[in-house]
């Protein structure tokens, strides 16, 4: 299987300046190629990767700074754009902004890469046109190198290696099944009554973040002091993201290691966190409340948890099943009675029919588990329509 290994880089000042140049070149190539694709589509024509790569090679003769970037990184940018347009559609692919998108570029050919370990704490990688670059050796590669991606996160540079570890998907571990409910008060609640949560930002960091954001709002745009404030905010947010990523990976590993089937709701997180501010003609309702809910959902890492579960399940012999999320929080896990009044508050569930009382998130997790077991028993895909084993009465098989 292919897996990723990420390490902090230790660029020299010259190498860091060159990395910024490559990141800018890849961003310009992405935006220019995307604009060209949209223009062609508006005329009813089409242009693909091969033609755009040929035109980029011609353009490098007239644009010296574009020619300084390694050709493989620019070609990989066009491949990524081609893949994104095929998957999402040309007019749904987003532009890359210098202000919002951190620089990133990939070296796809392993023949141009080399990794060596220097000491217990340090290693080095040879990148085209960079030469040898040192990085912090936090763990072994654990496989054969396939490609390398250089990215900037929170003001710090990292290198991410894609390696083939030589492992195959694990056989089913035979452990009991579990249902998982993702919440805003508690990040993860399971059907066996366990609650997993963590504070990703300390009170002091939250106060400092508010102070920096207010300071940023008062500063003049494009000023050096504003850039310094943005860098401080970026480093603080990167620290928070690292804690969230660690929690998500830790939780996913425990769930897939201890359970043979993990049932989760098939939530559309992007749709759930969309803004409702509307337009000037038709403004939205409860905009501030919805914005707060969106921040809470994103802060708990709902999407990242599902991705981590699917990744860890391959190694731990578990299976991830997505079930429809409708009415899981309003249905009694004991008697099946469904009513909005059953959920008295964010944390309390009390059935109006049988009187069953439990934690609301745990009750929802039990309903998710029951739906997952029912789905796997029928053999369908946990979403849309079930595949029944027997035809209805009166019909031929």
Description:
With 397 residues, the protein is of the alpha+beta class. It has two domains: 2-164, no CATH class; 177-201 and 243-378, Nucleotidyltransferase, domain 5. It contains ten helices and 14 strands. Strands 2-6-7-1-5-4-3 form a seven-stranded antiparallel β-sheet. It is globular and about 75 Å long. The chain starts with a strand and ends in a 19-residue tail after the last helix.
Please outline the major beta sheet: 7 strands, antiparallel
Weakly predicted, low-confidence segments: 378-392
Question: What would you call the structural class?
Answer: alpha+beta
Intertermini distance: 41 Å
Amount of helix? 40-55%
Count of alpha and pi helical runs: 10
Radius of gyration: 25 Å
Mean pLDDT: 89
Question: Strand order of the main beta sheet, please?
Answer: 2-6-7-1-5-4-3
Shape annotation: globular
| Number of E-state strands | 14
Give, in order, the helices and strands: EHHHHEEEEEEEEEHHEHHHEEEH
The number of domains is 2
Notable traits:
397 residues, alpha+beta, Nucleotidyltransferase, domain 5, seven-stranded antiparallel β-sheet, five-stranded mixed β-sheet
What is this entry, summarized?
With 397 residues, the protein is an alpha+beta fold. It has helices at 13-42, 49-59, 64-68, 71-88, 203-218, 224-258, 269-272, 287-300, 302-316, 360-378, and strands at residues 2-10, 104-107, 114-117, 122-127, 131-136, 144-153, 156-164, 177-182, 188-190, 195-196, 261-265, 319-323, 348-350, 357-359.
